[in-house]
Amino acid sequence: MVDVDATLDKAGLRNVHVREYVRYWAELTGADRIEVVSASDDARLIDEALAEGEISPAGEGCYYSRSYVKDTARSEERTVVATSNPADQGVYNNWRPASEMRPLLEDRMRGASAGKVMYVVPYLMAPAGSPLERYAAGVELTDCRTVALHMIRMARVGVSYIDNLADPDSFVRAVHVTGDLEDLGQGTPDDQRYFVTFADERTILHFGSSYGGNALLGKIAHGLRQAAYDGWTSGEFLAEQFMLIGIADKLTGQRYHICGGFPSASGKTNLAMMLAPDALGSRYRVDFYGDDIAWLRVDPDDGKIYAINPEFGVFGVAKDTNEVTNPTALASVAPGTGTLFTNVAYNENTQEVWWEGRTPEPPADLTGWRDWTGAAISERPPQDAGAPWAHPNSRFTTALANVPNIAPDYDDPKGVPIDAIIFGGRASDREPLIRAIPDLAEGVYDGLTLGAEATFAAEGVDGLLRYDPMSMRPFMAYPEGAYAAHWLKLIGSASSQPIFAHVNWFQRDPGDGHYLWPGYRDNLRPLLWLLRLAEGEVSGRQTPVGIIPTKDELDLDGLVITSEDLETLLSIDAARWRQEMEHRKEHLEQFPGLPEEIWLAHDRVAAALGDDTD
Predict the structure, then answer these.
(1) What does the pLDDT read at residue 456?
(2) What confidence tens digit (pLDDT) does each residue in 330-376 have?
(3) CA nearest 175: which of 126, 228, 113, 133?
(4) DSSP alpha helix (H) spans, 175-319
(5) Which residue, among 321, 243, 294, has the nearest Cα to 520 in the 3D structure?
(6) CA 137/CA 123 separation, integer angstroms
(7) Checking DSSP bridges between strand 305-308 and strand 416-417, what pairing results, if any?
(8) For residue 89, is pLDDT > 50?
(9) Which phi and psi angles does 108 have, rounded to 5°?
(10) Is the Cβ–Cβ distance between 120 and 13 less than 8 Å?
(11) Are 244 and 238 in contact (CB under 8 A)?
(12) Which of 101, 145, 291, 461 would bridge with 82, disulfide CB 3.0–4.6 Å?
């Protein structure tokens, strides 16, 4: 029997509630021993993982690992929010009764860590001293050493975060058990995996994976699902899948902050890590706060909306990351950063890594290169010659401190005041470069109808959006009607409210298919216009779906773009919008209890489009 108390005593972990929790799960999972992890243990854990072959060196001070071939991404269909109240069921949260799920998970986890170490990872998903700290503390128990290494990069890890809680029982209990990955029936009717957030118990139980959000329980399970539920039930905050940036005007000394949600493949990380274009760099600086999660609250002192990034690192998609798309990300994973690469291609001789989009072509010399499954590239049969070297969801994990343009106040417990909330999807037509939405209800309505284009050629509805409300579709923890009401109430209670906007970098020419907007660093330009609009420096042009810039209001210094493309980017296709409004109505009708303000916003936009003659 593992001596839990002696180990916790040695680590200086005194919190009696944590000790009881660790004792229970150590016995249930059958772990051989436990080990308490702090950030200072990183170098030792790296050495141990290297010695055991769990990771490999990837150049100086960086590391590489592969996951099991059937364990490469989040598994939304196996992800559940469980509570004791059936009224918590929403359309997207995959709700199940806690009374059903708890015994099911405990049965799977019972004895499943036999022969393994259980790593006790005390963490904080917020800057220490944050007004939201009581919702940020957690203790992850994991039987996977590489998960502990990732958590050290993604959260603030250490015993002090748990021992000094104002309420010693106010921590999230997060248990991760890997299971026998080769015998879990992934993707079959006999699938044994479950990833469950028991939201009203503030407990997370994940079984059957060692990858990403399935295993790093401080990130999505706590940072989004549990935090969203906590924010709703307390009425204190919103937890959203948002990027968070700062823009500094070096001429005036003014600083602005923007957060926002983007569905997958809509440019969120590239925007979050954006640098100013060369022509504007002498005046403006873009500061990085976070690329994935933001918690928003009203500050009682000044009545403004403040946001923090609860994470301590970046868990970024490697694919298509290069010097053009995201030079900031590349600098963040440079030698000496302690970065962990997962499921990219790896050269066992040179310790190099590579992924699709890193360079225009893969390395010509195949010697030593292995793909993400571990197979030698040089030994591929001819029919597999064009197969990807890296998995499309390959990742890098690096600490925030490694990001070159990290904001100087990224660790401020108070957070930063938000000037604008933006949403951005991927639309090849209809959606202009930017449209500002000063009205709160219409801004929330726009977020609820956020989406990115899907192609359903067989059904004959090309261009139809896959709706992803606020980019939270996979992470919803409570009913969508209540979610909309919580947004309206919380943002509405601020004495100074952010302006909303919708952006789209992906309009294409219907003829040759080229992108109309250069994107990347030039995306700063429409955001600067939005901030000027909020301050009354420009007025834009009113349309049925919001305010869009006039050509002379955008700072186009150094930008290469045709007048025809710019005109299209700053116009509204009313006919296409009227078609879209029918789809939006169908989308919203699936959510019971949607506030009347949202329907009134929909009706106002629809009526304005009906009157539009452009």
Answers:
(1) 34
(2) 999 999 999 999 999 999 999 999 999 999 999 999 999 999 999 99
(3) 113
(4) 212-215, 227-234, 268-272
(5) 321
(6) 6
(7) antiparallel
(8) yes
(9) -70, -35
(10) yes
(11) no
(12) 101
